[in-house]
Predict the structure.
Amino acid sequence: MSYSTDPVAQTYRTDCTAINLARARTELRSCTPDQLDSAALREAWRRLHETWLTAKAAEIGVAAASGFAIVATGSLGRDELLPCSDLDLLLLHDDMPVETVERVAELLWYPLWDANVRLDHSVRTVAEALEVAAANILADLGLLDARHIVGDERLSVQLRDGVRREWRYGIHSRYDELVETAQSRWQRCGEIVHAVEPDVKSGRGGLRDVQLLAALSLGHLTDGVTAGGPGDQRDALSGAHRTLLDVRTEIHRSSGRGDDLLTARDADAISVALRFGDSGDLVRRLSAAADTVSCRVDAVFEAAGV
């Protein structure tokens, strides 16, 4: 897109109001696959929200050495924010006065709500965030994706380093719980390769399993940075990840909702958007991607004696 028509670029020339964010979100959602392919849409969506957050932070005093930091977790933390994803944000503070924390939080959260952003938010000190991670394995997994957006980067670094250090030290004692959590999810959401309407996010072989492999890699329980093994296996896993992510992006674009199921209703439009051919080709590509991820998870679990 050119600068004059890019709704992300427009945010650089306007103030960080809710109405401008809402307008830019609507414009991006209206872009067709011919205008923005899946990866370009994700990048534009990420830039839009990070640009807005950076401008809003400057307006409300969240800056370097301010004692506040805005940290992305979830899909924004992983650079995988989709058109209908929740925006997962953590406002970190350096044990600031309660009144100050409440004021900053309100100035940050309310415009996002006014822009109809689906917001998953929390406000914590670094110590509080680490305590939550230690008590809840799902919260711990989420914080492994934490990424600094703006503000006092010292706090974000403390959080990131602390979460990853505790994850590496504690992974062996929490391994059974991690496996049980994954197996429960598979039972609940099914296997992508066998499902009539596969869940590309939480089904077996889906994006949650890609995140599981990344977490195991951070815990030094796998071979390779991306838990993909030798180079050719890493390439295959990376390609599978991209396929799953592209399909989920187009599910969001086609349905206009934060759905994760590939339905027969949307399959034809999604296969055209991804240039996969017909819906049968889409299903085959998706199943192959899920099989690649599932086989890698199985190999890691087998090596660990699960």
In short: Confidence is low (pLDDT under 50) at residues 1-5, 224-228. The first strand starts at residue 68 and ends at 72. The chain has twelve helices and four strands. The beta strands are 68-72, 87-93, 119-124, 147-151.
